[in-house]
Amino acid sequence: MKKFTFLLTFILIFSGYAWSQMVEDYEHIELNWFAAGAQGYMHVVPNPDPVGNTSNYVVEFRRGADGDPWAGFFSRLPEPLDLTEYKYIYVDVWKPVISPVVFKLEPDGADDVEVPSLFPQTKVNEWETLVFDFSDEDGLFEVITFFPDFPETVEHDEDIIIYFDNIRVGNAPDGNGDDPVFADIDFMWCDFEDEFTNVGGFREVINSQTIATDLPDGGIDGSAAIKLEYTVSEDNTFTGYRMWAFPDFIDVSSYNYFVINVKAEEPIEDALVLLRDDVDVNGRSTHTFDIGTQWHQVFLPLEDFEVQSGFDNEANLTILHLIQIQFNYELVSLNSGTVY
After folding, report:
1. Do 23 and 80 form a contact (C-beta atoms < 8 A)?
2. Residue 175 lies in a domain
């Protein structure tokens, strides 16, 4: 039986977006790769997956199963990287596995600085933007080093292919790399501080296939959270957790995003958020999301929610009554879970 941990808080937010300037796209610098194993290599190739990254060329890295954990590349830049104003480095990665990613900066005549990605990797076999926080640093850095797959020990059964592209530097990220702003919370639906939601209603499991336990200090930075143990099967096809508004419906039509702070013991694909309006109207909208193994923020644009299969109407966001996290047997990648 596969086990899974699910800790979360729920927010609705307005959103803006800040971007960064390009420093190097890897097409014009020397790639000095190292520690990648007997068959390892690194070179520039046509982009094999332009969805999520429209660059014509990207770096292909063969990461050998016999390589070292610190396999990667270094390069001396044609012009030093200046962190006087912009302190955050962004890199697009495409990986077949989830693992730590690390970026290192080396100034001439001073100690190097090495940091892991600010937000954990959550996607496989598609492009994802990772962010590296160098806000404590200043000045010029002549050498960059990148470790795109940096586990404690290499346990791959075979060599893997990783792609990466578009090194750029900018201001502090507003969200999860690709994602929008989470600088300010505009409206909280449920923070799990007590037995009720922040909109006056009960919160409860959908059925006996889920066990919920409150964690008073188990969330990000010691905030409250909840953990859910769920099981779905061919005979018990769905379960999850409900958070009600009461006694009044809630108008969220002016908000742009639904946000979940979430993590899991192992990656999970296609969990479901369901929004439901007045029971007499019974409009329902859903959106799937994936869960990584470290705390991260999942952003779901409200405009991207779609009417639930089997129902006629989308949820009316001016009279929202229920937010539900759901696990469906025919959808979710893990059918049983154990909560921490």
Report:
1. no
2. no
Residue 183 pLDDT more than 80?
no
**Of 170, 198, 217, which marks where a domain is finished?**
170
Write out pLDDT tens, residues 306-337: 999 889 999 999 999 999 999 999 998 888 87
- The model's pLDDT over 248-282, given as tens digits with 9 standing for 90+, comes to 898 988 877 788 888 877 777 889 999 999 877 78
The three-class DSSP label of residue 289 is strand
Q: Cα(121)–Cα(254) distance, rounded to whole angstroms?
A: 30
| CA distances to 83, 133, 197, 265, 333 from 171, in Å | 10, 10, 34, 31, 35
Q: How far apart are CA 108 and CA 213, in angstroms?
A: 52
Q: How are the residues of the chain apportioned to helix, strand and coil, as percentages rounded to the nearest 5?
A: 5, 45, 50
Q: Do 164 and 275 reside in the same domain of the chain?
A: no
Q: At which residue do the structure tokens 């019974």 appear?
A: 282
